[in-house]
Amino acid sequence: MTKSYILSLVILFATAATSFGQEKDVSDKVEKLLSKMSLKEKVGQMTQVTLDVIGEGENRYSSFEPFNLDRELVRKAVSEYKVGSFLNTANNRALTRQKWYEVINEIQDINKAENELYIPIIYGVDQIHGATYTAGATMFPQQIAQAASRNPELVEKGAAITAYETRASGISWNFSPVLDLGMDPRFSRMWESFGEDPYLTSVLGVAMINGYEGKDNNIGNPEHLASTLKHFLGYHAVTSGKDRTPSYIPEDALREYHLPPFKAAIEAGAHTIMVNSGIINGVPVHANYDLLTNLLKEELGFEGLVVTDWADIENLHRRDRVASSDREAIKMAINAGVDMSMVPYEYERFFDNLVDLVKDGEVKEERINDAVRRILKVKFALNLFETPVTHYKNYPKFGSEEFEQAAYDMAAESITLLKNKEEVLPLDKNSKVLVTGPNANSMRTLNGAWTYSWQGEKTEEFATQYNTILEAVQNEIGKDKVAYFPGVNYVMDGNYYEDEKDQFKEAIAAAQEVDYILLCVGENSYTEKPGDLNDLYLSDNQTELAKELAATGKPVILILNEGRPRIISKFEQNVNGIIQTYLPGNYGGDALADILFGDVNPSGKLPYNYPRYPNALIPYIHKPSEEQTAAEGVYNYEADYNPQFSFGDGLSYTHFEVKDLELDKTSINKTGKINIKVQITNKGKRKGKEVIEVYTSDLYATGITPDVKRLRMFTKLELNPGETKTVSFTIKAEDLAYFNKNREPIIEPGEFELMIKDLKQTFKIVE
Ligand code: BGC
Questions:
Q1: How many percent of the chain have pLDDT more than 90?
Q2: Which of 91, 284, 309, 728 is deepest in the core (most CB within 10 A)?
Q3: Mutational pocket test of ligand 1: of 142, 244, 310, 315, the residue with most ligand atoms within 8 Å of the beta carbon
């Protein structure tokens, strides 16, 4: 045994002992406190209320501007009702970090003064791509774009910055990351996910948690915070494509696809989890004992706190009608395993009913104790008893250039080049260009929702200092070379994606005078119900604009700025270049301009299949019958698997050659592993980054038809012109397991194919 090995063992044991010691310490404190608490104090801990409820205003649903706490309302909540948690901003508007400090500090002070048994409140907010609700914070690309970067280090760094800036706002609990699979382009929250793949989502989810909580999950560190895995489980897989509508997910599919990211995140030590607001197989998830207690708390061993989504206990009665009264709904949810109710308005009703239910024996006090233990554990772990609110003055790096650079880097690595006919890109900086389209001059569309406001509608008010695509292009090549006419613009009220013509003819006329057309299309910002969609095609006005611009004969570069892939097949063949920016955040315009004019070589890869038709929404993870060809089928029909672009697509300005795929074994048993090697060479003239993805196919499986292929591993690397690197991976037989109908993971003997780019090798698993 070498000295360094012994030393690392000692360190390992010491770290394990310390974390065990810390855990024991926390659980002692929790038990001591719990033993002193009255039933009301316990139920209060389980109650979460939104900020408007305690603000000065005419009612509990909105507040006067500028926002101020109503001390009497705060007192009532924390003293009479012992409320233990608050969330959200007020009036759906970001606050400065100074204001956040004042607000949270005042709540904590009143809470302390009013309660003999002092328990600090925990404040939670959705800071999902940067500190969403803090003015001046660093806004990163949304998760869907971060997934395209295929860069876990950048994801972790971004989350660490978000944690820092959230703590700089006095807030210690973040309702992020989203670990749902973005597998349905119709869904209004696809962009909040890391895309359609469970493995990619697992890797990036864990990276995000490491950034928020620290790799050691020491959330007592004032630069870390408690993360929230959401929305447990299967939230995006709705049959209708509309938010909060029923899903039908068989148990094996739930485990095979939806569960792994949550499992990985729980193993990574995440402290809290939020429940899916929807309904699976007819049962609202908030009332599902099997999912919340049997699966989550028992089988997965999740020891953290389970919070509902917005108003979802009420929804059991008022929306889903599985409970005939609010009281019944509360009983169902708490007995199913919910620890904290995001009420968020009528908290008295929740509180009174739950106290009653316990008194009547319909909810056992043990269940309440379990819930409160979980909540107190997080409060102790966050060090809230010592520091109930962190002070913005201790966070000098808030909004710093270093942080801005990280957001820019993420945008630059995520933007994805999908088409580059005759190498039209990058453009010469002496070119004259027309910038047009409804997304050309909007900070709102670059950021998407959850930006300074829920639907992102207040973005322009807060983001004036950042560059839209138009401004970034002007900065890049000079205003004199840039013409701008929107052609089409979003209608600001009514439906979130309505648009109308705006200087349409002028845009077409201006196209005649330039060398290139930069056509910026996509969607306005939206999330949740307001983002429900009836037609996945890009809007008629935008499609018409694209066709007419292309008809001028000038080369069109189509710039997509959208939360989900809007279908472009009616004119895709008429454009010369296509760049997907997703929702790249406040530095997205700058990063895009750098890519357009060659300062940055693009390296993003699609995190989903981009559909060609509305009736062909087939993800890359699909079954062989989606792809059968005429020769194979008995009925001689052809299945049309033909996405516009595929998961993993993304071009570069250089050319990479991948060759010499080698497997050190071609046969392994169920505990075996294979070492894989492949050579990659940059054959072009520019430095560039490339992603190597390893896919496998199980050629035959018992009981359940296998997926055509699945992503198993990936890495991203940078190569200079002419440079060659060897990339190595190790794949284990257990990585290839699938869930059968008995909910068991099966490693099945048989033949497999392993693919890296166009290279293929087969191997076997034997008994
Ligand atoms: C959303 C959650 C969010 C919560 C709190 C809900 O409507 O579904 O994702 O965390 O509101 O803002």
A1: 93
A2: 284
A3: 310
